[in-house]
Specification:
Layout: H1 2-37, H2 42-72, H3 79-90, H4 100-111, H5 116-143, H6 152-165, H7 168-181, H8 196-220, H9 228-244, H10 254-262, H11 270-300
């Protein structure tokens, strides 16, 4: 059964990747003239630089939030050392399997005497909190009536499940159950309070990443203030699907396809949106590699 699920998951990943690539190529084929006509002036380049700075700050902030999660599990790992490991391992999510960044962080926590269980929970709790933050941003924008959305109930249900799932009562019960099923007689790691501060931290991360996306959009077209909630909502949902759908590593393809399909083509021309998501991916990659490089060099020189 385990082998069958593994095979199905592998095929599903390729089907999703193939589908997203086909969609992106189809959009590019239909709008390549618009993409070729895109020009970036001096103001546009300034917006792209600001997008890179904000995105860089978002990754550093996310690393700091991870230290809060480790603190909630009473682990002897934090401060600059934890931030450094987070930023360096962050680029490993683009490797096949999309789990190597988690492996690197768990190994780092264990190397300083931390608990394997707590380290594993910290890297599992982080994307759950990110997912909750993304749903919160999308729902707040939708509730303001600034974006047409027929899937409110699905988003509310998903948010409720995630918020309930990270409650100490539910989370600790699940940890104890899993520990018993594995025949582990040692006391399992538990969380003592609701991770509200890390949740707010991940909300800040999503807003920073969304701000970077807005700057990239502003580099290519005028952005009406009234459209900002819609842009943040679309970005959050696209980012969330890139996080949870088993496609390419780092949400590559899934994020781009979702964003292109979600924007209103009347106000956001597909050719512009296609250029924006491509530039945003480049800006994000550069920011991640730059952050990892600084963390590596700074760590070795101190």
């Amino acid at each position: 059964m385990k082998k069958l699920l593994s095979v199905i998951k592998s095929y599903l990943r390729w089907v999703i990747l193939g589908g997203t690539l086909f969609f992106l190529l189809s959009v590019f084929k239909n709008h390549w003239r618009e993409v070729a006509a895109v020009r970036i002036d001096l103001f546009g380049w300034l917006m792209l630089v600001l997008a890179g700075v904000v995105t860089f700050g978002a990754h550093v902030w996310s690393a700091w939030v991870w230290t809060w999660i480790l603190k909630a599990f009473h682990q002897p790992f934090g401060g600059f050392q934890a931030i450094k490991i987070y930023l360096i391992t962050n680029i490993a999510k683009y490797l096949p399997g999309n789990v190597w960044h988690f492996y690197g962080r768990i190994s780092a926590v264990k190397s300083v005497g931390g608990s394997l269980g707590a380290a594993s929970l910290s890297v599992l709790l982080e994307p759950l909190l990110m997912a909750a933050a993304a749903l919160l941003v999308a729902l707040i924008s939708s509730s303001l009536g600034l974006m047409k959305n027929t899937g409110h109930w699905v988003q509310f249900l998903g948010l409720g499940v995630v918020l309930l799932g990270v409650h100490p009562c539910v989370l600790n019960w699940g940890i104890r159950l899993l520990s018993r099923l594995k025949g582990n007689n040692t006391a399992p790691v538990e969380i003592n309070q609701y991770p509200l501060l890390p949740l707010l931290g991940e909300l800040g991360f999503l807003l920073l990443r969304g701000g970077g996306f807005l700057f990239v959009l502003a580099a290519l077209m005028p952005v009406n203030v009234s459209y900002i909630p819609q842009v943040l909502s679309v970005f959050s949902l696209a980012w969330l699907l890139g996080l949870i759908i088993p496609g390419a590593p780092g949400g590559l393809g899934v994020f781009e396809a979702t964003a292109i399909a979600s924007f209103d083509p009347v106000h956001f021309p597909p050719g512009i949106v296609l250029s924006v998501v491509a530039l945003f991916r480049v800006v994000g990659l550069l920011a991640e590699f730059f952050a990892a490089g600084i963390a590596y060099l700074w760590g070795n020189n101190n």
